[in-house]
Amino acid sequence: MKAIVVNQPGGADQLQVCEREKPEPKPGELLIKVKAAAINRTDIINREAKSGYLDLPILGIEVAGIVEVANTDTKIPAGTRVMGLVNGGGYAEYAVMPADRAMVIPDSLSYKQAAAIPEVFLTAYQTLFWLGELKENETALIHAGGSGVGTAAIQLAKQLAGARVITTAGSQEKLDFCRSLGADVEINYKEQDFDEKVLEATNGQGAAVILDFIGASYYRKNLASLQVDGRWVLIGLLGGAQLENINLMDLMMKRVQLKATLLTPRTDQYKAALTADFAGRALPLFEQNKLKPVIDTVFAMGDIQQAHQRMESNQNIGKIILNMDE
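The line above is the sequence of Putative NAD(P)H quinone oxidoreductase, PIG3 family; the predicted structure tokens follow.
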């Protein structure tokens, strides 16, 4: 089968298409004929060998395709259209997926649309509801609103909690798109102090939940933007990981709940439970057109280097998709 591998740790130029053996599903797994996969920042981290998430030389953590082989102990028959998270190996013509992570693709969605759902919507769902405990009509501050997770989080916060959504992005194009998804307040972080705008929009109270992709460089403004007893969930470090001269009393005075998470290194059991909860609560909304996958660009397998470069340059609004069905 054709697969995309990393020659050696480094830049996007280390990615190449080559021939690899088709994987064999173990008990409880499905063999998927991959129709589309998606690019994630986890893939870039693994390409650079900055983490030990994956043992496979083939990148990719989410796919959409057709079940080709289903073991007898699974409930999903061969021929079913499915999408979901895989433990690496997604940038290939075939991949194996734990059956309890497979979500049946709604009839209204294409494979490319389906590939844009699993990682970002599951991450956003986990962050908002499992960790952020977002409640009905609360205010959520969602950074990086034009990113894959950001576009998913805006929709989930509005559709599942009726939340008031404040979002940040670095261009008017991205802010306009965030509004089209349901954002109530949009802030250009390059031109405005977002903490001041958040307090202005909340009558000085601050947001109940913050989805923080940025980390160190946003620490003080996030603290100022959070209400008393607010939940602050760290899911990225685009603005750095090191903090200096931090007074922990500031967190205590606001009774801040600061949580941090990564989805990819979670256990198979955790991912299965998260998938089941999300599928039961949110998946029907795609059929009703209340939730929609957001696709930025579709690349062919041979253009994988350009696909990674597009994500690294932060040009995308929504997901970058690989068309594996060429």
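Note on the example: The domain at 2-117+264-323 is CATH 3.90.180.10 (Quinone Oxidoreductase; Chain A, domain 1). The chain has a mean pLDDT of 95.
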